Amino acid sequence: MSILRRNNVRVTGAATGRPVVLVHGFGCDQNMWRLVEPFLAEDHPLVLFDYVGAGRSDLSAWREDRYSSLDGYARDLVEVCEELDLRDAIVVGHSVSAMTGVLAAAAAPERIGALVMVCPSPRYIDEDGYRGGFSAEDIDELLESLESNYLGWSATMAPLIMGNPDRPELGEELTNSFCATDPDIARVFARTTFLSDSRKDLETVTVPTLILECEQDAIAPREVGAYVHAAVEGSELVTLDAVGHCPQLSAPEATASAIRAFLSSGAR
Amino acid sequence: MNPGAADDPDAETTGTGPAFSALLEDSAEDLYESAPCGYLSTLMDGTIAKINATLLGWLGLSREEVVGRKRFSDLLTVGGRLYHETHFAPLLRMQGHLGGVALEMRTAAGPRLPVLVTSTLKRGSDGEPLLIRTTVFDATDRRAYEQELLRARRAAEEAREQAEADRAQLREALAVLQRSLLPDTLPDLPGVETAGYYHTASPMELGGDFYDLFALDDTRTAFFLGDVCGKGPQAAALTSLTRYTLRAAMIQDADPVDDLRTLNKALMARYTGDDPRYCTAVAGVFERVGDTLEIRLASGGHPPALILRADGTAEFLSTLGGMLVGVLPTAQFVEVSTVLGPGDTLLLYTDGLTEARVGPDRELYGYDALRSFAAARAPAGGRALVDALTGLLSDFGDGLDDDTALLAIGVPATA
After folding, report:
1. Does B227 touch chain A if contact means CB atoms closer than 8 Å?
2. Are B86 and A141 in contact (CB < 8 Å)?
3. ipTM summary value
4. Domains within chain B, CATH numbers bracketed
5. Which of A105, A155, B103, B172 has its CA 20 to 30 A from that of B278?
6. pTM for the whole thing?
7. CATH class (in words) of the domain with range A3-122+198-264
8. B167 Ramachandran zone, left/alpha/beta (phi>0; psi -120 to 50)
9. Rounded average pLDDT over B261-275
10. What's the rounded Cα separation, in Å, for the pair B236 and A10?
11. In the annotation, is A68 catalytic?
């Protein structure tokens, strides 16, 4: 199985220019980027993919030990960059994938030349003077929420979504399929996302970095944005006039504008 | 009001009754406020713009506390909010509609309210999303039922795993027990080629076939093969008794007919009254004389032995008249003798082989087919013959539903 198929890689946008890799976070898949795509496609080749376990990736390639740490997700990102032989790419990572981008940039510095962190959080759980916004019990509650929404998974979703990369139309008939994931896989991704602590990794960032946060974000509050901004030397922080955790959907144009401005000025 | 309505049996259905009038007076506004489900409209940032009385009642909140002050996600548990932000909100943006999502709401009194939520995006004339309309159904009972289903599924999963483990353990125990009823290996005898095979029809059931072969002294060897009635643990107990009785009898006095009589007595004594147990068996002794084997054997109700000759023929060694062992105190057993020369082989088998079902009509394989099969392979050494028959048994597939034992005794062809 090639990496391109394993991660359901899609390359679109301009034929030449500095490549932009758009990386989805926990919850859905590469469809998260579809509203900002048109704003970036003119000047940049765009690379989109699904992590193994998400979207229309090859679920048979999923291994619990690999995807129980953010390093496993970072390896997916690095392997996609290697497969496409990207150089000096800009990695735009949403939510937990902002941190995946940090790990990938440290692992493959020649391939990743700049980072855009969309609503990042290096640590979701409150701890010793650090406020991430959540308690460990909150995360258990999320796992319950996941469970209660997966009653129908095994019977109907799995055979249609799993192992059908050749026939994407099968997945399209399903409502909610963008965010449908095997419950066991989702549980592992949720734990990895919300229990990880990547604060130390922020210090490793040496590439130009843009942090995008929302005015009001229930998952990554502004004090977390400020924390990341302070921890990544020379980073730029932009607060979008948007509510929620997904500005690429709720304010796609503003999100794209901020990224474009960063690319044309500070990304070098 | 129609004054005649009470007397008019058709009033309810013809639209003239008081109930129908009341329905007409039910305003859309009242329907919204007092609907049996919660209604909620929010701006695109989630700020609640409108909420109905039903939902306010469920949550124990006043309109003033909510409208313009809270976002939809503020009404959810923290875990629900995380789910909302990571799944619900993006999906709603991408699809414009989202149905049947299970969430939990926080009520002012404390307890959580399990709900099922459906949302639709309302767009303006330019296609831009304007607001989100949401209906909320109380899913308390349903969630309890689902929890029960989940619990039952987990219990079923655990029970299945336990059952599989138990089965594996039982299979292993049965295999050990089954092996204990057969010789580990056949003794290595100079100038004699022997081979045995046991086909187990089901790993979950003990079979009732048995065979054995053991040296009596420097020149004489005893052997037997048989089939007890039935299957399972009872048959295994009978097999064990049969095997060790015959073995002891043959060591004591190697006379095939006497030995079967001893077995007959033992079975009659052990299985009395309304639990008769019996078997069929061939017991015999062979003695090496020069380059031949002189064989005496006796049969009690067992299918005839088959002899493959060095000249390429195959014939049955008739023991007709021998009676089942363990049924009658005065049972008769028939003794015959034969001599095997170089290249000759004697085959003993149980009826699993001849009673296998073959072909589209599932006919009995039968004695003629067995003789032809053997003749086509004669002359054949004991090992080669048993190997060929093992292949035949395997080819029967599900046509073979009984255990089958094979024992071949031959004199190697001279070089």
Report:
1. no
2. no
3. 0.83
4. 35-138 (3.30.450.20), 182-410 (3.60.40.10)
5. B172
6. 0.63
7. alpha beta
8. alpha
9. 87
10. 65
11. no
B38 near A CB under 8 A? no
**Angle A70-83/A96-107 helices, nearest 10 degrees?**
60
Is B87 within 8 Å of A27 when comparing Cβ atoms? yes
> Angle at CA A43, nearest 5°, toward A39 and A44?
95
CA proximity to A100, closest of A169, A52, A171: A52
Mutate to test the interface with A, among B43, B76, B78, B82 (most CBs of A within 10 A): B82
Q: Do B94 and A31 touch (CB under 8 A)?
A: yes
Q: How far is B99 from chain A (nearest CA, A)?
A: 9
**Using 50, 70 and 90 to split pLDDT, how confident is the model at A150?**
low
Structure-block tokens of residue A208 = 């130009």
- Interface check for B79 against chain A (CB to CB < 8 A): the answer is yes
| Whether B112 contacts B85, CB under 8 Å | no
pLDDT digits (tens, 9 = 90+) for B85-129: 888 888 888 888 888 888 889 999 989 999 989 999 999 898 888
- The residue extents of the domains of chain A are 3-122+198-264
Q: Find, in chain A, the residue whose alpha carbon is nearest to that of B129.
A: A250
Please name which of A69, A93, A112 lies closest in space to residue A198, comparing C-alpha atoms.
A69
Indicate if A94 belongs to the active site: no
Nearest CA-CA partner of B227 in B409, B338, B354: B354
Over range B372-390, report the average pLDDT.
Answer: 94
Mean pLDDT value across chain B: 89
**A245 labelled catalytic:** yes
Q: Which of B45, B99, B114 sits opposite A243 (nearest CB)?
A: B45
Q: How far apart are CA A128 and CA B132, in angstroms?
A: 39
